[in-house]
Amino acid sequence: MITLFSYPDLFGLEDNNPYGLKVFAFLKLCGLPFEHRHTLDAKAAPRGQLPYVDDGGQSIGDSDAIVSHLKRKYRLPIDDALTPFQRDLDLLVRRALDDLYWVMSYSRWRDPRFWTAFRDALLRTHPEIAADDLEAARKYNFDRYHYQGIGRFSPKEVYARGIADLQVVANMTGDRGFLFGPDPNSIDAGVYGFVANIVFYDIDTPLKLFVLSQPNLVRHCHAVRAAMDNRAVSRQPL
Questions:
Q1: How far apart, in whole angstroms, are the C-alpha atoms of residue 124 and residue 202?
Q2: Pick from 26, 34, 173, 188: CA 20 to 30 A from residue 230's CA?
Q3: Any bridge partners for residue 185, and if so which?
Q4: How far apart are the first and last CA of the chain?
């Protein structure tokens, strides 16, 4: 049995972290049975980061590494029809999403306009989480943003960077189907992990306002969700 360990749910999404939601969506789109466990403790995770999966006793971390492992081990055909050019685009989109991650995280933990609403939503949804732990996580994230570099930009510059990433994805997303055709590929799970964590995020950050101005991104998000719902259902632990 595959077990996915990822951050807690929020705003009706199975994971409030885009990478964990990406893996969740990938598993669902491929119809693989799995158990989903929410945690904040990453000590058992490879590299000490969430998400990770335990696949028959083998632990795999990093969302891209997880997807590669699952495709290889279970001979999943989800990306078999991609052309070499589409595989290159897949990589470039994933790298743009990696850049977008920092802006999304900044909007939740760093920007004082949105931090308290995000904190309160977490505490309301998960009363077992201590407010002091969130404050400690916020301080830790401040350090991460500084050393990564995004913490040295003004808020206006930060959001301009994230919106530029989203604009590229919006430009690639048509009015029908998925990024590379009528059926979803693994890149659609990746895009969903990020866009859903903006669309369903119940706080009007600049990222959300931009996504809502792009009907094709919203349509794509709901199309992936519908495709996930038509596949196998994960099993929550008792």
A1: 13
A2: 173
A3: none
A4: 15
Could you list the beta-strand ranges (E) of 14-151.
34-38, 52-55, 58-61
Cα–Cα dist 66/71, whole Å: 9
**All domains of the chain in start order, with CATH:** 2-73 (3.40.30.10), 84-229 (1.20.1050)
Q: E strands along the chain, which residues?
A: 2-6, 34-38, 52-55, 58-61
Strands (DSSP E) along 16-133, which ranges?
34-38, 52-55, 58-61
∠ Cα 222 195 165 (to 5°): 135
* Token pair of 167 as six digits: 């604009």
pLDDT in tens, 124-153: 999 999 999 999 999 999 999 999 999 999
Q: How confident is the model over 55-107, as pLDDT tens digits?
A: 999 999 999 999 999 999 999 999 999 999 999 999 999 999 999 999 999 99
Whole-prediction pTM value?
0.94
Nearest to 117 by CA among 100, 102, 134, 103: 134
Query: In the 8-state DSSP scheme, what is residue 167?
Result: H
Report the C-alpha dihedral over residues 76, 230, 170, 91, rounded to 10 degrees. Answer: -10
Burial class, 136, CB count within 10 angstroms (exposed 0-12 / middle 13-18 / buried 19+): exposed
Beta pairing, strands 52-55 & 34-38: unpaired
Neighbours of 130 (CB within 10 A): 10
What the block records as the tokens of 23 is: 């893996």
The CA distance from 185 to 29, in Å, is 8
